[in-house]
């Protein structure tokens, strides 16, 4: 089967116009677009029957669908993808949208987390969708590490940084851990941790384990390795994902089943189960990325679209991401530049403060 760029290339001008107008009409109203609607302002004088024939061809190609008999057409997921990739016009955010995002910087607080929370709320308000902000990890040098056993399958790592910042992170320890093995692992780490950031510590842990393998027992070694995975962001349970504006998706008149799927999505997000995958989505490509429906396993159940962009520090390293979740009929031409602008603003903000 041909991919969407090939399909777009093979379409004649009339088919392209019919397809574009159906998609634009659907994105604006959420309703199927009929042939009579298109004839009223079509670029050439054609009958409704001619347009219906074109729409049938587009449906056969998998680009349009008819939700009801004798109804108009709506774009399929493949049709939306082709429109987003090949036909959408992406400009700059409007002055009003920029002002609303910029207004969050008015309170020049030293609390980066609070500032990113306000940016997330502003992004949600501007886009009328749900916003996601993945905050950067704390990268100050570490002063002390402590492991605390909470239960056989639950433990806490306490990280004390040189700037006074303290983080508590829950994780699942390897089977068979004891309080004494955790103390031994903490002593091992604290012997050389001071002055290193989390990233620097993680890079050196494997080297240290290799050099000092005989100094710790097998269980303590497993705990250190488990901690290394935790600090790399895999399975991390700290409050790094800010979700704002879920009511924008839950307050509509959608079908009960669809609303339940969206509730399930946000329950998952708020339990922070998908933080690592969310950042991975952003890191896979430069600039804004768009995931429509089932293209993204994170959001396929909700039938939603995700527009996401990474933000970088002064060294051009990806340290977080911002995004918007909405229905598949998002106004992509407006949302994409807003997300891009917000990501650049957050990156500059973090770089300037550091």
Automatic annotation (TrEMBL):
Domain of life: Bacteria
One GO term of the biological process aspect: negative regulation of DNA-templated transcription
Domain called Heat-inducible transcription repressor HrcA C-terminal: residue spans: 115-336
Keyword terms: Repressor, Stress response, Transcription, Transcription regulation
Database matches in InterPro entries: GAF-like_dom_sf, HrcA, HrcA_C, WH-like_DNA-bd_sf, WH_DNA-bd_sf, WHTH_transcript_rep_HrcA_IDD
Pfam families per record: HrcA
GO molecular-function terms, A-Z: DNA binding
Function: Negative regulator of class I heat shock genes (grpE-dnaK-dnaJ and groELS operons). Prevents heat-shock induction of these operons.
Similarity section: Belongs to the HrcA family.
Alphabetical list of NCBIfam families matching this protein: hrcA
Name of the protein this chain belongs to: Heat-inducible transcription repressor HrcA
């Amino acid at each position: 089967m041909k991919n969407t760029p090939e399909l777009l290339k093979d379409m004649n001008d009339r088919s392209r116009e019919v397809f574009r107008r159906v998609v634009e009409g659907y994105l604006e109203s959420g309703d199927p677009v009929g042939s009579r609607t298109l004839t009223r302002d079509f670029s050439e004088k054609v009958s409704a029957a001619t347009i219906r024939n074109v729409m049938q061809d587009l449906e056969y190609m998998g680009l349009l669908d008819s939700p009801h008999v004798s109804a108009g057409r709506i774009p399929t997921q493949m049709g939306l993808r082709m429109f987003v990739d090949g036909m959408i016009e992406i400009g700059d955010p409007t002055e009003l949208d920029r002002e609303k995002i910029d207004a969050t910087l008015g309170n020049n607080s030293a609390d980066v987390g609070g500032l990113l929370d306000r940016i997330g709320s502003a992004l949600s308000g501007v886009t009328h969708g749900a916003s996601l902000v993945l905050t950067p990890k704390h990268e100050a040098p570490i002063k002390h590490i402590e492991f605390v056993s909470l239960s056989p399958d639950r433990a806490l790592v306490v990280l004390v940084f040189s700037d006074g910042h303290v983080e508590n992170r829950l994780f699942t320890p390897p089977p068979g851990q004891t309080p004494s093995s955790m103390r031994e692992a903490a002593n091992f780490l604290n012997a050389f941790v001071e002055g290193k950031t989390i990233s620097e510590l993680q890079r050196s842990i494997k080297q240290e384990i290799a050099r000092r393998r005989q100094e710790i027992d097998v269980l303590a070694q497993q705990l250190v390795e488990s901690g290394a995975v935790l600090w790399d962001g895999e399975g991390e349970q700290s409050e790094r994902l800010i979700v704002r504006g879920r009511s924008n998706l839950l307050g509509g008149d959608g079908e009960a089943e669809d609303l339940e799927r969206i509730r399930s999505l946000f329950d998952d997000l708020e339990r922070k189960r998908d933080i690592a995958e969310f950042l991975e989505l952003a890191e896979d490509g430069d600039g804004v990325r768009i995931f429509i429906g089932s293209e993204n396993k994170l959001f396929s159940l909700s039938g939603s679209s995700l527009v996401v962009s990474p933000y970088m520090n002064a060294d051009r390293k990806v340290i977080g991401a911002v995004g918007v979740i909405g229905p598949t009929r998002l106004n992509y031409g407006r949302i994409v530049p807003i997300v891009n602008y917000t990501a650049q603003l957050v990156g500059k903000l973090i770089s300037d403060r550091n």
